[in-house]
Amino acid sequence: MTAIERDVVIIGAGPSGLTAANELTKAGLTVAVLEARDRVGGRTWTDHFDGHMIEIGGQWVSPDQDALLDTLAELGLETYSRYREGENVYIDKDGEKRLFTGDIFPVKPETEAELIRLIDELDVIVAEIDAEKPWAHPRAEEYDSITFKHWLEEATADQEARDNISLYIGAAMITKPDHAFSFLQALLMAASAGSFTHLVDADFILDKRVVGGMQGVSIALAERLGDDVHLGQPVRTLRWSEDGVVAITASGLEVHAKRAILAVPPVLFSRISYEPPLPRHQHQLHQHLSMGFVIKVHAVYETPFWREAGLSGTAFSPYELSHEAYDNTNHDDPFGTLVGFVSDRNADGVFELSAEERKARILESLSHYYGEQAKNPVFYYESDWGSEEWTRGAYAASFDMGGLSRYGADQRTPVGPISFSCSDFAGAGYQHVDGAIRVGRETAAAIAAELKG
Q1: What is the CATH code for 46-64+76-84+205-210+293-387?
Q2: Is 251 known as a binding-site position?
Q3: Is 148 annotated as a binding residue?
Q4: Which residues take part in binding substrate (predicted)?
Q5: How many CB atoms lie within 10 A of CB 356?
Q6: What are the strands, taking DSSP E only, across 148-251?
Q7: What b/e string do you get for 258-296 counting C-beta neighbours within 10 Å, with b at 16 or more?
Q8: Would the annotation count 36 as a binding residue?
Q9: pLDDT tens-digit series, residues 204-249
Q10: Residues β-bridged to residue 327
Q11: CA distances for 58 relative to 55, 214, 243, 397, 437, angstroms
């Protein structure tokens, strides 16, 4: 058994934990980062298969993500714009393929009017929500007691309008059916991006990518910490008192520290045994959080053939197996890559199939957007975060009905010497790398203020 002493032990080497660790070292404190996986990056993961770079996890940068943009600049990492020239594709409930530009789908005029009205109405309500504390809104409990599905049904009788508004929040972001999360949770999702309009605008929310991949952020942050990052060290026990903590890993490594930061998805908090147990309130809080589920599909082709047809690669349909897809061609790559997403109940369904059947079904869906050529990629890969031992879902955890107003204010409240830091608990940048960095900075600043006086 090996024992080391540090000021702070950080559990989890994703963007949030590594940001906190770097901020703490800048403040003159010593750290140890314990990571269960054999890599850093958490829910960001860039890998290479058959010579093709695949962004298995989070990858996009939007213009409002100041924390991420500042970090990229500090680390010397470059970005490039997502390809978006040409027309987008929409498939309606009858399976008709329509081309369009702009943000509003090419639906019948009365549905278009409803979409615009609903977006405007949501923007007004979202503007009242403080993303850092949505539970403080005067109507928070009311909004948290109704599902997003219920709100949509009360807001409009137009089914196609409901289906499309639901797509932006449910399938595309929270990755749960709209009957499974509250209206307040939906408002937080929009408020975290600045407005509902931002979520509708793919050119904004999916603006740029990182040259070399988003995992490069974590790799660069980890390099600055050197030997203070310990891979393959899942923490099994966390002993704590007002005097400090002892983190014990599966291999027997012990880190004695004054403070601990849990920088992992909240669904993994229960994988650690706490001595003494966490207070009842935290146990209850954590049980009301669950991950969504989405498959990220990567299809690589000899060339980005859709561009020759004048298509941007951007495609949407709440009626397709792959509800959205984009041109995901890598920087200076002669090959063309499409990325599609299969979410919540659709993802459940295809995982009941064999791998070959699932691949055929998904590629068939992509062909509805891009044509028959989409069925024949030279390389195909599915990111299944639901099967990842140290993640167990995607993109992030969200509260069940009533949970956000009941427990949200305490999700980051420290328990003795234990603090919590992850993108799941972010306000601005919720469930994004930007939010992970923001929370990591804030958590580190609070601990440094305590320990340094």
Answers
A1: 3.90.660.10
A2: no
A3: no
A4: 341
A5: 8
A6: 208-210, 229-230, 235-241, 244-249
A7: bbbbbbbbbbbbeebebeeebeeebeebbebbbbbbbbb
A8: yes
A9: 999 999 999 999 999 999 999 999 999 999 999 999 999 999 999 9
A10: 338
A11: 7, 7, 37, 15, 13
Which pTM value belongs to this model?
0.97
Q: Is 235 annotated as a binding residue?
A: yes
Burial of 150 (0-12, 13-18, 19+ CB in 10 A): middle
CATH superfamily of 106-200: Guanine Nucleotide Dissociation Inhibitor, domain 1 (1.10.405.10)
> Is residue 237 a contact partner of residue 248, using CB atoms and an 8 Å limit?
yes
Mean pLDDT computed over every residue of the chain: 97
| Tens-digit pLDDT profile for residues 369-385 | 999 999 999 999 999 99
| Domain regions of the chain by residue span | 3-43+214-278+415-452, 46-64+76-84+205-210+293-387, 106-200
**Rounded Cα distance, 399 and 177, in Å:** 13
223 is in an annotated binding site: no
| Residue ranges with strand state E in 232-352 | 235-241, 244-249, 254-262, 273-275, 289-291, 294-301, 311-316, 324-327, 336-343
SS3 395: coil
Query: How confident is the model over 338-353, as a mean pLDDT?
Result: 95
